[in-house]
């Protein structure tokens, strides 16, 4: 299957991007040319208009903004096939195998944590009101509650138990019990400042069909765009029908760019440097978990539900610090040949001041003294130190966006 995967490695196609077995590649003849089915075969819809607003007598649980986003993602089918918070058998299967108990690929458990006293109260109710800032927005149809081993969870998901890892730190702060059950959403978030570009999978799929696209490449980012991002996105556009730009809007670690900066930066990039008819810009509202390879699979599944046939996987996709091997997020896809969306792997590349262009070790003979390594981490460090990246690293329109924000970083 690894040879087949190389079909999606558009490396060496543009600017010498790496490919592993060139003789086995015939991109136009072998490429998947159809919108994939939703994960699990059906697009979940758990959005219902509330006909009964009298929820005062219902037992209720207060959820934070992150969990409310995830409830809405369940309702809209972004997390298909999930219809609610997962139960114990699915939870244990995800940790042990990276799959739901029915064998379907799934690597990130979507869970609701509560205190033991709350869990014991909940079991006396069939329907529980889910509230955010005191407002009822969804109903949970209780199924079960169960305890879980936090140490086992972090080692399975994050491959470390180091509390300096943001995902590990958050897990250890979770409450001790998990509650499962289907949900129904009656009221969506209406933060129009950040959600103007949010679309449900049913609408993105309709738009993809309207445009006549057969091959759609999804691109995940939690960063502002730099020239290297633009280069690989346009490399994909040379081969596939459409580009699905899907920045993550939600909780991130300290030092990452704020959502508003990411949003404005991509709007400027698309407005000035992309053919409008070849790009869809849709925001994804969930939190970064920094789970590296496990999160790369999760990101691919969500883009499959949006209608993408292909998904660009970065060198250190969803990574943080040095917790994951540089290409761990590429290697994990060998375990998921049945995922239903084709990953596209790009090599590690840099700007060569001798070649006067972007290159990698396969096509550039020059030494390290000519290389400018490019990454989101480096961009953040440059900006935070007051140094604006040069035009060969970042478009001036993007630099202007950053300059106009008094504090562009999450604190």
Count the beta strands.
15
Largest β sheet strand count, sense and barrel closure: 6 strands, mixed
The DSSP helix count reads: 15
Second-tier CATH architecture of the largest domain: 3-Layer(aba) Sandwich
Mean pLDDT equals 88
Instruction: Give me the CATH fold name of the largest domain.
Output: Rossmann fold
The CATH homologous superfamily of the largest domain is termed HUPs
Amount of helix? 25-40%
The figure for the number of domains is 2
User: So what's the overall shape?
Assistant: globular
Uncertain stretches of 5 or more adjacent residues? 1-30
H and E order:
HHEHEHEHEEHHEHHEHEHEEHEHEEEEHH
Cα-atom radius of gyration: 22 Å
Approximate strand percentage: 15-25%
Which keywords apply here?
six-stranded mixed sheet, six-stranded parallel sheet, globular, alpha/beta, single chain, Sulfate adenylyltransferase, Rossmann fold, 411 residues, disordered N terminus
């Amino acid at each position: 299957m690894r040879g087949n995967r190389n079909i999606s490695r558009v490396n060496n196609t543009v600017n010498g991007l790496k490919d592993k077995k060139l003789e086995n590649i015939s991109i136009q003849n072998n490429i998947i040319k159809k919108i994939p089915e939703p994960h699990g075969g059906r697009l979940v819809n758990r959005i219902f208009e509330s006909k009964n607003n009298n929820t005062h007598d219902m037992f209720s649980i207060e959820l934070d903004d992150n969990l409310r986003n995830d409830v809405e993602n369940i309702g809209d089918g972004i997390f298909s096939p999930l219809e609610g918070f997962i139960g114990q058998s699915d939870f244990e299967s995800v940790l042990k195998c990276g799959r739901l108990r029915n064998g379907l690929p799934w690597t990130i458990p979507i869970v609701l944590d509560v205190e033991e006293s709350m869990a014991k109260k909940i079991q006396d109710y069939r329907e529980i009101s889910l509230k955010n800032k005191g407002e009822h927005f969804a109903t949970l149809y209780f199924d079960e509650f169960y305890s879980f081993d936090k140490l086992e969870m972090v080692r399975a998901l994050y491959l470390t138990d180091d509390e300096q890892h943001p995902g590990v730190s958050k897990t250890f702060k979770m409450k001790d019990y998990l509650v499962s059950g289907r949900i129904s959403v009656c009221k969506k978030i209406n933060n129009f400042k950040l959600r103007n570009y949010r679309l449900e999978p049913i609408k993105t799929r309709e738009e993809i069909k309207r445009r006549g696209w057969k091959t759609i490449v999804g691109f995940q980012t939690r960063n502002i765009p730099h020239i290297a991002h633009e280069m690989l996105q346009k490399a994909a556009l040379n081969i596939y029908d459409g580009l699905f730009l899907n920045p993550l809007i939600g909780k991130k670690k300290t030092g990452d760019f704020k959502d508003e900066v990411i949003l404005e930066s991509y709007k400027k990039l698309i407005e000035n440097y992309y053919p409008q008819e070849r790009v869809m810009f849709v925001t994804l509202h969930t939190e970064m978990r920094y789970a590296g390879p496990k999160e790369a699979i999760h990101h691919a599944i969500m883009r499959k539900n949006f209608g993408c046939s292909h998904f660009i996987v970065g060198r250190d996709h969803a990574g943080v610090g040095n917790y994951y091997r540089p290409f761990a997020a590429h290697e994990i896809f060998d375990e998921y040949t049945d995922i239903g969306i084709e990953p596209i792997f790009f090599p590690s590349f840099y700007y060569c001041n001798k070649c006067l262009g972007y290159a990698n070790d396969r096509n550039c003979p020059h030494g390290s003294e000519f290389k400018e390594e490019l990454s989101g981490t480096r961009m953040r460090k440059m900006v935070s130190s007051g140094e604006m990246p040069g035009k060969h690293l970042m478009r001036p329109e993007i630099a202007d966006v950053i300059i106009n924000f008094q504090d562009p970083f999450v604190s």
